[in-house]
Amino acid sequence: MSTRGWYDYHVIDRSAGAMSLAMRFYKWGDATPENALDEYLNFRKRLRQQNNRLPIEWLDALLRDQLGELYAGLPPHFTTAAFLFLLQRADEEIDREYWHRFDPRDKRPDFPLTYALNEALTAGPFEIPPNDNPALERVRRVIATARYLRPWRDYGLRLDFLTWLQYLTQPNSSSDMGSIAGEYQRSWDIAYHYRLFFWIDTSDPLTIDQIAIELCERDGEDVLRPSDAIQDPDENAWKRDQAKKLNEIIRASDIRIASLEMLRHEYAITPDRFWQFREQPDPDEVRHRARTKEVQNSCKMLVHLVEKRFGSVIAAESRPLMESINDFDVLLELTGPIIDCSDADAWRKALRDLLTTQSH
Q1: Is 210 exposed, middle or buried (0-12, 13-18, 19+ CB in 10 A)?
Q2: What's the gap between Cα 273 and its chain centre?
Q3: Which of 7, 141, 292, 315 gives a 20 to 30 Å CA spacing to 35?
Q4: Does residue 230 surpass a pLDDT of 70?
Q5: With bands split at pLDDT 50, 70 and 90, how would you rate the model's confidence at 81?
Q6: What does pTM read for this prediction?
Q7: Can you give the C-alpha Rg of the chain in angstroms?
């Protein structure tokens, strides 16, 4: 059975003396405490490579551009925590690519997205240059995917914000084992709950100069200090052995351990604004999109028939009028005139008559 976990990313603004929950997500599979410590070490390594300053402005600029007025509704320091989430997803996707490295390129699930994104990046300049770091380069490509292929304006009516963010990191809509954003409450099937803490300074919020981690069971018990409350002696022995091994890793790797309970006495907790971030759709617009999607393929086919019978000029003239018809049955009534009309004038009259009838 796969090990599943829940992650909370807390950002601590040292100069403001405040701590906020800035990102949370579910990890389906491989969410063992050992892997959580590896993820901590990966973050620390990336930060040291970048002198503690990650290019979080890439994501911040994207979200300001894509969300407009909705940007102000994000939790405090969301872009910092979301950038770290994208880094974790980048490492997972790099590992996935490794295991599929011998698959034919055109058979890999990421081939269509990779092909389309490469075309988009070749067609025009992208403000973020390529990066030598594999994880940061993958984050750059995620941001380019949002810019050119999967913009929020095309998905905000049917995906909540975190699900859209997750979709940007995937080759298609199928979520594989790994970190999955889109949940706002802890899932019932988790085995562990991890909290990562990131310290920033108001003078330069893009700099993360300290990180720590807390490892908890799903019920909140400290994994590193298991109690003897469980009746099963074998389970107690296994937990004590696990805690011993984890503490050895922590000492050897100089991992900083913290706890939410202790930090809440040192820093003020920003009110939780972790919400289901959705654009408020216009009901009329939603209905219009649904009708349009239903009939658009049929409309294209009929326009093609008009072009075959009466020429490209008449087809171009007829297209906007035919696309204004949102009812499939009304659109179907044009099939007869397209076949039966003897010339373009007769077709124009038939189309005008149908539109006049529809308007009344």
Answers
A1: middle
A2: 18
A3: 141
A4: no
A5: very high
A6: 0.75
A7: 27
CB 277 within 8 A of CB 23: no
Cβ atoms of residues 264 and 19 within 8 Å: yes
pLDDT given at position 235: 78
Reading the block at residue 15, the tokens are: 């100069």
- Residue 341: φ, ψ to 5°: -60, 135
Taking alpha carbons only, the member of 346, 305, 351 closest to residue 330 is 351
Assess contact for 295 and 327: CB atoms under 8 A. yes
Q: Give 343: exposed, middle or buried? Use CB within 10 Å, 0-12, 13-18, 19+.
A: exposed
Full 3-state SS string of the chain: CCCCEEEEEEEEECCCCEEEEEEEEEEECCCCHHHHHHHHHHHHHHHHHCCCECCCHHHHHHHHHHHHHHHHHCCCCHHHHHHHHHHHHHHHHHHHHHHCCCCCHHHCCCHHHHHHHHHHHHHCCCCCCCCCCHHHHHHHHHHHHHHHCCCHHHHCCCCCHHHHHHHHCCCCCCCCCEEECCCCCCCCCCCEEEEEEEEEECCEEEEEEEEEEEEEECCCCECCCCCCCCCCHHHHHHHHHHHHHHHHHHHHHCCCECCHHHHCCCCEECCCCCCCCCCCCCHHHHHHHHHHHHHHHHHHHHHHHHHHHHCHHHHHHHHHHHHCCCCHHHHHCCHHHHHHCCCHHHHHHHHHHHHHHHHC
Q: 213 with 197: CB under 8 angstroms?
A: yes
For residue 65, give the nearest of 79, 52, 53, 77 by alpha carbon: 79
Task: Name the CA dihedral angle for 179, 191, 75, 172, rounded to a multiple of 10 degrees.
Answer: 20
- Give residues with Cβ within 8 angstroms of 10, minimum separation 6: 19, 20, 21, 22, 195, 196, 197, 198, 260, 263
CA neighbor of 25 nearest in space, from 183, 193, 161, 164: 183
Buried b (16+ CB within 10 A) or exposed e, 223-254: bbebeeeeeeeeeeeebeebbeebeeebeeee
CB 55 within 8 Å of CB 136:
yes
Average pLDDT over residues 74-103: 89
